[in-house]
Specification:
199 residues; alpha/beta; Rossmann fold; 42% helix
Length: 199
């Protein structure tokens, strides 16, 4: 599950760098090879911001061929942002993600929630409460954090957001660095926990 931050701190250009960066990371030959070597992956992409502002970008799909991956990437790149004026409700986003993950069409050997963001939780319950009240058994939550805000989102994600076997935080120096960071993050996730645990 790929969850992109569309809170009010993310402007239109930064949102485009997220969707374009994720799409291009998926199209990268090394990522495609990793997906093929894994026998395919089941994926969904969504945008999140406020308490009730979670919207699908690309619905559940099995990515097993180049055409599958290209179609999924195209949907992400052409998605029109739905919300732009809401705060950062990370706990609600994680609760929503856990619920959607349990309703995925296929059962997978590993489940990963991939949360991107540029700030800390500032509305509603935080990640620790989400982890106590939603089913995250056998789920790894990783973070891709855009550096630069205060309070420091990297430290926050490391302390409160990542969870599960091999969980890690990947960082981007800014939104322009998002594609590079996402490519590295996808390779770590797809290639398995043994690789993801090496920071």
């Amino acid at each position: 599950m790929l969850a992109l931050d569309v809170s009010s701190s993310v402007d239109a250009d930064e949102f485009a760098l997220q969707t374009g960066g994720l799409a291009n990371a998926l199209r990268d030959p090394s990522v495609r090879r990793s997906i093929a070597a894994a026998g395919g992956i089941q994926a969904i992409a969504l945008e999140w911001s406020g308490r009730d502002q979670q919207v699908d970008i690309a619905p559940w799909a099995l990515l097993a061929s180049d055409d599958d991956i290209s179609g999924f990437a195209d949907r992400i790149e052409t998605h029109q942002r739905v919300h732009s004026e809401f705060p950062t409700a990370l706990g609600y986003a994680l609760g929503h993600a856990a619920t959607r993950l349990r309703k995925a069409p296929l059962n997978c050997s590993r489940s990963v929630i991939d949360v991107s963001g540029d700030g800390v939780n500032n509305e509603g319950f935080g990640p620790p409460l989400a982890y106590r009240n939603f089913d995250f058994s056998n789920v790894t939550v990783n973070g891709l954090v855009i550096e630069g805000a205060e309070p420091d989102p990297v430290a926050y994600y490391r302390a409160h957001v990542i969870r599960g076997p091999g969980a890690f935080v990947e960082t981007a120096s800014d939104f322009g660095d998002y594609e590079r960071a996402m490519k590295r993050k996808l390779l770590r996730e797809i290639n398995g926990a043994h690789f993801a645990s090496a920071d």
